[in-house]
Amino acid sequence: MAPLTICRIRPPTTLWRPALRLFSLVVLSIFLTSQTALAKKDHLRVITDSNWEEILEGEWMIEFFAPWCPACQQLQPVWNEFAEWGEDMGVNIAKVDVTEQPGLSGRFIITALPTIYHCKDGVFRRYQGARTKDDFLSFVDEKKWQEIEPVSSWFGPSSFMMNTMSALFKLSMFIRHCHNYLTEQIGIPVWGSYTIFALATLFSGLALGLILVFIADCVFPSRRFSSANYYQKKQALQQARIMKQLEVEHEADGEEDDEEEEDEDYDEREQDDLWSRGVPEGRPVPRTGDFEEEAVRRRVLGTREEEEDT
Q: Strand 92-97 relative to strand 59-65: parallel, antiparallel, unpaired?
């Protein structure tokens, strides 16, 4: 009888062990690569409306860009390389996407892209030099930013004026989103969207005006209407004006009467003078009760004329 041969079967775990080791090495390498990439990206800070006040402390170099801008796309690799030196130089390198942060675009008055600002403890200066990595490094290392005039406090990003400008930019972006929603999602025509915004602007202005008038009337009430004797005083003033006007008219009438009396006296004196000289035109107007005197005077005048004729 042939001897019995026993074959030892290898466990399956020992067969998959090299494959597991290889798989673990691949996963570890991918993890380390991703961590390295994340570490590089962390050098470049992203500034938004929620964290922009962080740049008021320390030293910063901030780039304002837009994804659609060709000049910004050319500058981006250089800016990323410059960001890797930021930690060694003690300066924070950041970027702001103006398409996603319209408030910051208005706060810093961004009129051209890309725009670069240097900030040192809340004092802002606009960088206008060459845009290479070496120029950025020398600008920070040699403190060339001290030669640039800082932005006025009136136009600083934390001033009241720039806060208002930021709010206006946010409002304009909100209106743009509403317009796109009305025309693209709901299907309203463009002229219909403009009409809606025009009416909304009109009614909001009227409402705001009424609110401001109400507040002003409550805060600064009119003193003349607050007085209890206001209407009595007003009535007394009106009566005084009427009395004064009547007095003026009465004085004017009196002056006219005086002038008429003077004219009558003057006419009577002229008539008396002519009568004394025997001029017929100077005879006084006869009165109803003096017919006899008038007849006598006519006789006297007739006798005088006869004597003169003879």
A: parallel
| Cα→Cα distances 159→56, 61, 165, 187, Å | 12, 20, 10, 41
| Average pLDDT of span 114-138 | 92
Q: Are strands 44-46 and 59-65 parallel, antiparallel or unpaired?
A: unpaired
Split at pLDDT 50, 70, 90, the class of 161 is: confident
Angle made by CA atoms 131, 134, 136, in degrees to the nearest 5? 55
Q: How far apart are CA 183 and CA 196, in angstroms?
A: 12
pLDDT at 151 over 50: yes
Q: Which residues are within 8 A (CB) of 34 and not within 5 positions of it... i.e. 6 or more apart?
A: none
Taking each helix axis from N to C end, the angle separating 133-141 and 70-84, rounded to the nearest 10 degrees, works out to 50
Catalytic site residues? 69, 72
Mean pLDDT of 275-294: 53
Is the torsion defined by CA of 208, 210, 213, 215 positive or negative? negative
Most confident of the ranges 111-125, 200-214, 224-238: 111-125
